[in-house]
Design goal:
single chain; two-stranded antiparallel ribbon
Length: 207
């Protein structure tokens, strides 16, 4: 059974999707054993407490550099035998040391169809604003591995979601979460824990 750490920054809806999927037995060979938040006010911490999951807060604003923050996170992970890190609405960019130590063992969910509307500056509602301003008719979500390039790791799963007339950022954000993020993130986590993701360069193969 693999130990999963989930990193959060806000409301924790994707964390809840993972907890619910775990409760339904959909995350095979994996268990969420630790939740780490980048700020103490993240409601996601309440979700973790309710589910009986151990928590810690490593505040980004307490550290002056990405490198220092990386070391603080690694210290929080030390001794927990974490096999997989899942970034579920975690708004801090991870540094090289953490990415190296957990190479191909960090999964992120991004609210667009990468390589569109991704990279530095594209997070949260900013993604959906850009989607609406562009006039595209389809958006979606991507579960991918994390490397040193923002949203640049190998793609695991994607799901498309329609952009509908009259959408605003809130409506579109909720549709993408409900129809894509909450579905493909637990699936990607389960595939990893089952050993069914083969990585070849910057591509993945589901086996």
């Amino acid at each position: 059974m693999m130990n999963i750490a989930v990193f959060v920054s806000g409301g924790g809806t994707n964390l809840q999707a993972l907890i619910d999927a775990q409760g339904r037995g959909e995350i095979k060979n994996g268990k969420i054993t630790f939740v780490l938040a980048s700020n103490e006010n993240a409601y996601a911490l309440e979700r973790a407490k309710k589910a009986g999951i151990e928590i810690a807060v490593v505040s980004r604003k307490s550290y002056s550099s990405k490198e220092e923050y990386d070391r603080a996170i690694l210290a929080a992970l030390d001794g927990r035998n974490i096999d997989l890190i899942v970034l579920a609405g975690f708004l801090s960019i991870l540094g090289e040391e953490l990415c190296t130590q957990y190479r191909n063992r960090i999964i992120n969910i991004h609210p667009s169809l990468i390589p569109l509307f991704c990279g530095d500056g594209f997070y949260g509602k900013k993604v959906h604003t850009a989607v609406l301003e562009s006039g595209v008719k389809v958006t979606g979500a991507t579960a991918h591995f994390v490397n040193e390039i923002t949203d640049g790791g190998a793609i695991i799963l994607q799901k498309a979601v329609p952009v509908e007339q009259g959408d605003n950022e809130d409506i579109l954000q909720y549709r993408v979460m409900r129809q894509a993020e909450w579905e493909i993130l637990p699936k990607a986590v389960s595939l990893f824990c089952e050993g069914r993701i083969k990585i070849n360069g910057n591509k993945t193969e589901i086996i």
